[in-house]
Amino acid sequence: MLPAPRVTLPATAHEPAVALPAIGQGTWYMGEGRTPRREEVHALQHGLAMGLTLIDTAEMYADGGAEQVVGEALAGRRDEAFLVSKVYPWNAGRESAIAACEASLRRLRTDHLDLYLLHWPGDIPLAETLEAFARLREAGKIRRFGVSNFDVDELAALHGLPGGDACAVNQVLYHLGSRGIEHSLLPWQRERGMPTMAYCPLAQAGGLREDLLGHPEVMGIAARHGITPAQVLLAWAIRPVEGRRDVIAIPKAARTEHVEQNAAALQVRLDDDALARLDAAFPAPARKVALDIV
Prior knowledge:
Layout lengths: L5 E4 L8 E4 L3 E2 L10 H13 L4 E3 L8 H9 L8 E6 L8 H13 L4 E6 L7 H13 L3 E7 L3 H8 L10 E4 L11 H7 L4 E4 L16 H10 L3 H9 L9 E3 L6 H9 L7 H10 L13
Parallel strand pairs: 3-4, 4-5, 5-6, 6-7, 7-8, 8-9, 9-10
Antiparallel strand pairs: 1-2
Helix pairs in contact: 1-2, 1-9, 3-4, 7-8
């Protein structure tokens, strides 16, 4: 078995570098009753056992319900997970971010987050949010902070503020059928050593792009490798670029069979021919495009 690929979050002034699995577990739509709660909890626990130790959630998901599912899954095993949650932009003020984080911690049944993200840019000044994040870190309630759904200009504005360059990650939509970040955003982040977290790496089971999972090239590569089309998409999302891996995919899986398929994708290595075929079928844009958000 090949060693599972990992992505390293660089050391900060307060935290050592940490190596994370290149595939984690997303929780969007958990806690909404679409799948029995016990199955969602078991799926997350099964993922932990299979090495998918990064779990991503948010106060937005099911109005805190997803955080409650995660809290139940992590009962008695919090130390096994790298836990990520996100704050609404309107809750990201000097005081409101403190309250929002503390509410998330209660739902998650933990005393700290490993990573706390601003869910998307909002009207509250970033300097205020950074101040709140710094206070949360000093209080031991978060270890690192990051952002989500930030494009280049927004990241540059963040980096221009005192403490903004400590941003650990940017979480954005990224899948084979949505490659807009490759033109400007990914190069900007790579120049600064900032990893990317890719949400919807399976395009929500193909729902965001109907021709994706059933595309002849995707299906042909899956058949040649003896894997599923979804595993092709995951292996593509975390592929090394210029010898370096810096993308963490966070697919949601509420059933154990999907968790196992996601974990197995860590063992998939797409060869140059497969990557070239996928590039030809789903080319990256030749110019800057608007950030894709769902």
